[in-house]
Amino acid sequence: MLNSNWKQLKSGTDIRGVASEGVAGESVNLTDTTIAKVSQGFALWLSDRTDTPVSHLTVAVGHDSRISADRIFAAVSGALTAAGIRVLDCGLASTPSMFHVTRDLSLSGSVQITASHHPWNRNGLKFFTKEGGLDGPDIEQILLHAQNGDKLAPGKGSVKKIDYMSAYCFSLRDAIRKGVNAADYDRPLSGFHIVVDAGNGAGGFYARDVLAPLGADVSGSQFLEPDGMFPNHIPNPENETAMRSVCSAVLRAKADLGVIFDTDVDRGGAVDATGDEINRNRLVAIASHIALEHCPGGTVVTDSVTSSGLTEYIEKTLGGIHHRFKRGYRNVINEAVRLNKEGTDCPLAIETSGHAAMRENYFLDDGAYLVTKIIILSARLRAQGKTIGDLLAPLREPAEAVELRFPISEQDFRKCGESVIAGLEAYARRQTGWTVAPNNFEGVRVSLDDSHGSGWFLLRLSVHDPIMPLNVESDREGGAKQILEQLSVYLNSCAGLDLSPLKQSF
């Protein structure tokens, strides 16, 4: 079992912690010593998994733009080379590229130094093999090696700088050339104006090395230079400030399309020419269109908070099947992989946060790949005088959408949350006009008829934190409030929940 010191570093399928001083009350726990022990743990895990002596391993290491990247790279590479491991220094890189490098160069594994969209003072480690990203139990085993102080035999490794991002960018350019198949094959984006917002993360390459060489006008693009303090906005397609910023940039530039990435480019979002976001349900809808175009009747796996209108779009407009599962990008990916193994034709796993993994791309959540597919679709539609907006016209969107997050005060927060959910399911089944969803993979999802709010709610337990998120959507104005008022009767009877967010919503 992990003790509390090591357990706090486990964040799902990543290792994350505080890497830089400067935020009150947050002491650095990703020290050089800790990073070295974790790196050695990865080497031991990798050696066991591949049946390869540690000294015969070759591991690529890359990083995003965070200010702690150089220090952490030195600690990782130092620990690995001290055991005789050959390290390939990929420098500033996207997280998806650090998976592809393991396949293209036939490496033992790779490490990406990143903390995704988290604040500037945090950082972390993400691990890959040729089979994909590590899962939760793998991370726990690595941390157990670190906690137990399992040592590597001394050796003399090496560090070699490589430029893998150039090869990764070539593959994206090649996909666009083939996908658009324009008369001017080598410049298929000529006359297409695309604004890129990298949020000062690692994604600036997309404008410079993918779009511009294909003839795209990328003027008006913003925050392309890496800056680990993220001075302009959080690099996060889910963040309202970030999305407002890229929407405004598209309108200022009078561009045809805008795209935005998170810090390490494993998530992406888009904006159409009118400045409307292609995000959350709209992003899932477009990704589903792309995936099902060559997979008629296929199944799309999403997280649990997608709208009822999205289900209608996937199943009635696109002719696919919507499999609503759990929050957490690894959850939706693992579920899609499982379905395919069992014989279900499933080409896409996508979370409303922007994590999108396509079967054709090894079920890797890759923001640049998703955006590339959107650009290909946009260019093809443009040639027909159509837009992405035309494709999204049948998507029924809610009149109101609310998310509240209730902190759990009980020490055993998981037990408390599970009790609240079990009680709510029983309560909901007794209410007139309420219908409990037949396939609740996470929490309780309930639909309410026209007389009771004309919408739905989902109460669930956070994947990692002592929080119970509540999502509410309604098809009419005032419906969300009506749903919350009814739900509050049950919630007020629950011990251990901080309901102040609910009280503030009225």
Name the poorly predicted regions: none
**CATH fold call of the largest domain:** Alpha-D-Glucose-1,6-Bisphosphate, Chain A, domain 3
Morphology call:
globular
Helix count from the secondary structure assignment: 16
Radius of gyration: 23 Å
| Assigned CATH class of the largest domain | Alpha Beta
Q: What is the mean predicted local confidence, pLDDT? A: 96
Tell me the fraction of residues in β-strands, as a range. 15-25%
Number of strands: 22
Domains (count): 3
User: How many strands, which pairing sense, and closed or not: the largest β-sheet?
Assistant: 8 strands, mixed
- Give the distance, in angstroms, between the N- and C-terminal Cα atoms: 44 Å
Assign the CATH superfamily of the largest domain.
Alpha-D-Glucose-1,6-Bisphosphate, subunit A, domain 3
**Name of the CATH architecture of the largest domain:** 3-Layer(aba) Sandwich
Share of residues in helices: 25-40%
Task: Specify the structural class.
Answer: alpha/beta
Can you walk through the features of this model?
38% of the residues lie in helices and 20% in strands. The protein contains 16 helices and 22 strands. Strands 1, 2, 3, 4, 5, 6, 7 and 8 form an eight-stranded mixed β-sheet that branches. Strands 14-13-15-16-17 form a five-stranded mixed β-sheet, sandwiched between helices. Strands 18-22-21-20-19 form a five-stranded antiparallel β-sheet. β11 and β12 form a beta hairpin. It is globular. The mean pLDDT is 96.
